[in-house]
Amino acid sequence: MRCDDTAEALLQPVRALVDGVLADWGVGADFHVTVGGSPGWVDGGVVLPSELAKGDPFPTGQGPGQVDRWRRAASGVLEGAVLDGLAQRVGAWPADDWRWVGLAAEVADRAAPVLGAAAADLQRAIATGNLHAHPRAGLAFWRWLRTMGEDPVERFVEVARGSLVSGDEWTRFGGWLFDAAPRLLEWPVERPPVATMPSTWGPWQLGRAVVAAGPGGRISTAGAGCCSSKWWRAGTVVVVGATDGEGTVEAAPAGVGGRWQVASASVAGQVMGARGVLWTLWEDGRLEIVLSDAFVGPLAALPVASEVGTSGVATGRWRVDEADVLTFEGVTTAGLTVHGRRGDRMGGRALGFGIPEWIADLNEGPWRFVKADDRLVMRGAMRGAPVEVRFRDADPVAD
């Protein structure tokens, strides 16, 4: 390593460490280090910031993660050597972005952790989630990749040659960044505040978002937006962000809200007819089941269907817990009555096992659903028996 006079004096306390690492890496004696000018990588060498040659031992302050000027200088030399090696490997000049700069910081820290220079970069990544605005924070991505058993340098080569970082990979990294990474530091770090959906994110940015209320639904993305989940549930925080461009993430309805008429059902394979059962799944999570002279039963019970019916309103709440899964809570049937259909229509509270008991068992869930156009099919179990309920849209849109 060749140094100008200023660099020679600056690096003197850490020269043995730097020379040892460079020798291990096979860096030649013509690698040159200067101080002043425009700091950063230059072909075959590195320029260190002039502020490091001044008298202040801590030119950037002495807060958590900050290191003295000698350690910063040593890290700068090692990072410059990494960038030089990467440039030769991929045949391109280093860019001032998180992929190049972050990897250089990670490789240098792994070779000389005693310098402690990476802590501030990891802290910045956690606190901002913005690797585009803070390229050195890119160290966090490569560190995460190493924890996943991948070789960061080999992956960098793939990325430099056109391999993409997918939205799924980006949000998985975000989950680690906001959950596990803070435990790697010896001091607390504030994460970015949780946003609400819809939210817009800049390139190579990560954050957390939540939908405060509602029954749940699908998460949609636009542009380069991405999310750690395809479905949202009220109060559940998810990781969101964008990859190589601006992107938007928003919560969309589950697609099952509205008014649905029960068309038929089956219990343990036995087909059931249905009459007078109307479900309303309100978009705020309320469930209302209106029975109007209703009957649900096998074809063999048609004579009974002509004699009695069930009327009233059952209420509760519904939500989407995960992809295509409905959960019902607090469904009550106390207001339902069974009555005759001819002559004296006086009725009494519905008892035994019939429509009210079937409705109350909705609470036992979960229920998987499939929606196609104006049809909805819900499958689950009641008292150990498989059940399928088929609905048709009560308010179809005319062609």
Q: Could you describe the 3D structure shown?
A:
With 399 residues, the protein is α+β, with helices and mostly antiparallel strands. Strand 14 and strand 15 (325-332) form a beta hairpin. The chain contains ten helices and 20 strands. The longest helix has 22 residues, at 69-90. Helix 2 packs parallel to helix 3 (69-90) and helix 4 (98-111) crosses helix 6 (139-147). The radius of gyration is 32 Å and the shape is rod-shaped. Helix content is 27%, strand content 35%. An eight-stranded antiparallel beta barrel has the order 11-12-13-14-15-18-19-20. It has helices at residues 5-11, 15-25, 69-90, 98-111, 118-128, 139-147, 152-160, 167-179, 302-305, 355-360, and strands at 2-3, 32-35, 40-42, 45-48, 195-196, 199-201, 205-210, 217-227, 231-232, 238-253, 258-267, 270-281, 286-298, 308-322, 325-332, 337-340, 347-349, 367-372, 375-382, 385-393. It folds into three domains: 2-184, no CATH class; 195-253, no CATH class; 258-393, Lipocalin (Beta Barrel), CATH 2.40.128.280. It starts with a strand and ends in a 6-residue tail after the last strand.
